[in-house]
Amino acid sequence: DETINEKRRHPRHEVDFIANMKVGLKIGGRGRTVNISWGGICIEARSLFTTIKAQKVKELLGSLITVTFPFENLVVEGQIAWTDRNKGEIGLSILKTSNAGQWEKMCKHG
Fold first, then answer.
1. Cα–Cα distance, 79 to 110 (Å, whole number)
2. Which of 37, 38, 65, 73 sits most deeply, having the most CB atoms within 10 A of its CB?
3. Smallest Cα–Cα separation from 58: which of 80, 36, 27?
């Protein structure tokens, strides 16, 4: 969608990384990245949606989330910007990373 792409400050790159997600103390799961940019990530997170009731999904918006990329030795902290239960995806804005150099490498090269 052109309108969405115009709003993005950083280009997105399609990538496939394993992502372990944790929201609060009780919600978590494993997923795979769909795409990433310097400022955000889209993650296929069906396992996250199976741990919470459908009516609670919207309550995730704005929640802090920790995403660990075990094979890239990287932890990313972000905020959930959107959810799509039908696709099983979440989008998050990046707040900080454990290794800026590694994150930059992932964003550029996938």
1. 22
2. 65
3. 80
